[in-house]
């Protein structure tokens, strides 16, 4: 036996049968399903209230925020007549606040005074009592149709909100006037455009554009220096964006008129989100998944066949039961810093 053969023998003995290397551990893997015990909520956004160990979802049909416990028990958190359809939701546990992106897509039981596709607003509420703390009309900042959709919070507690019907990202600091962070024709397109976003602790937003699947990196200090992330995939139908750690991002996609993805994509970047790779894909089925959240080391996605509500009037739609599905675990992976 020559040296090369000896080395191969040692290598094979150190590996499982057949000399095959053990497969890498997966992050995305479907688990338990939590059925919400209140039908007809049609949640789009989801967040996690860590101190109280509960999810917070917004309702597109009922127009308020609701807390959800681990067994699917639902409790109405807010009672704000201004809330028409709540899309994006973000929890600020440090400051005891929950934020809601407010729109009117003609599917709510509480139509807005502004009218369908004319409302874009954001509100902040006490996380424990639901008491209104701050409310900002964003649509008056830019003419045109509006739908406030995704929402993300930075370290100072400022909310950033996408407008899916106008090519705009808004900045809404708590207790201060809101402003346009960035408006650009690159965010324009057919149908629903800018959607979910996440704030990165290095000082930029990662934003998905649903219509064509582009992912953008937008520095909040110099927003005109935004770039499209170079990734060998597009995320048409891209809805929710969840930052797992500085190098990993989860994108939840449902569908557009031309593409039906209905999947969760795990991305990784080693160069500060100039480029990225898709490392895992998890099909979620034809349930129109919208957003995901990390909670106690696990990943959960919310869905309720929201496309059915959007395609019909609120009076003749079937009253669906929403679900929160465990789609992965972060246990044992640790947090990876950005190079």
The CATH architecture classification is 6 Propeller
What CATH first level would be assigned? Answer: Mainly Beta
Question: What is the arithmetic mean of pLDDT?
Answer: 91
Number of strands: 25
- Residue share in helix: under 10%
Biggest sheet record: 5 strands, mixed
The sequence of SSEs as H and E is HEEEEEEEEEEEEEEEEEEEEEEEEHE
Distance between the termini: 45 Å
> What topology, given as strand order, has the largest sheet?
18-22-21-20-19
Shape, principal axes of CA atoms: globular
Output the radius of gyration.
21 Å
According to CATH, what is the topology? Neuraminidase
The CATH H-level superfamily is TolB, C-terminal domain
So how many helices? 2
Structural class: mainly beta
Q: What number of structural domains do the residues give?
A: 1
Poorly predicted ranges: 1-19
> Which range does the strand content fall in?
35-45%
What does this structure look like?
The chain has 339 residues and is mostly beta strands. It contains 2 helices and 25 strands. The chain has one domain: Neuraminidase, CATH 2.120.10.30. A 5-stranded mixed β-sheet has the order 18-22-21-20-19, with no helix packed on it. A 4-stranded antiparallel β-sheet has the order 1-25-24-23, with no helix packed on it. The longest helix has 11 residues. The N terminus is likely disordered.
What characteristics describe this protein?
339 residues; mainly beta; Neuraminidase; five-stranded mixed beta sheet; four-stranded antiparallel beta sheet; globular
């Amino acid at each position: 036996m020559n040296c090369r053969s000896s080395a191969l023998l040692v290598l094979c003995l150190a590996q499982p049968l057949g000399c095959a290397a053990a497969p890498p551990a997966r992050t995305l893997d479907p688990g338990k399903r939590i059925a919400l015990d209140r039908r007809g909520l049609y949640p789009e956004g989801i967040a996690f209230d860590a101190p109280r160990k509960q999810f917070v979802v917004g309702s597109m049909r009922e127009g308020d925020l609701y807390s959800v416990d681990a067994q699917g028990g639902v409790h109405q958190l807010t009672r704000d007549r201004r809330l028409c359809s709540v899309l994006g939701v973000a929890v600020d546990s440090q400051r005891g606040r929950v934020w809601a992106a407010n729109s009117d897509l003609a599917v709510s039981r509480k139509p807005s005074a502004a009218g369908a596709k004319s409302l874009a607003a954001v509100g902040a509420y006490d996380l424990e009592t639901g008491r209104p703390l701050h409310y900002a009309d964003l649509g008056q900042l830019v003419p045109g149709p509006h739908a406030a959709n995704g929402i993300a919070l930075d370290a100072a507690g400022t909310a950033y909100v996408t407008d899916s019907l106008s090519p705009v990202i808004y900045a809404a600091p708590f207790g201060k006037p809101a402003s346009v962070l960035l408006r650009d024709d690159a965010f324009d397109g057919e149908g629903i455009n800018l959607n979910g976003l996440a704030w990165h602790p290095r000082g930029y937003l990662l934003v998905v554009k649903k219509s064509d699947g582009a992912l953008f990196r937008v520095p909040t200090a110099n927003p005109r220096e935004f770039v499209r992330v170079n990734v060998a995939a597009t995320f048409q139908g891209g809805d929710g964006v969840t930052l797992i750690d500085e190098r990993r991002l989860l994108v939840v996609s449902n569908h557009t008129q031309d593409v039906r993805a209905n999947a969760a994509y795990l991305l990784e970047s080693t160069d500060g989100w100039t480029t990225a790779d898709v490392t895992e894909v998890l099909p979620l089925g034809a349930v129109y998944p919208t957003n995901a959240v990390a909670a106690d080391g696990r990943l959960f996605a919310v869905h309720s066949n929201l496309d059915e509500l959007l395609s019909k009037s609120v009076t003749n739609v079937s009253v669906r039961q929403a679900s929160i599905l465990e789609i992965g675990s972060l246990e044992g992976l640790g947090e990876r810093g950005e190079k």
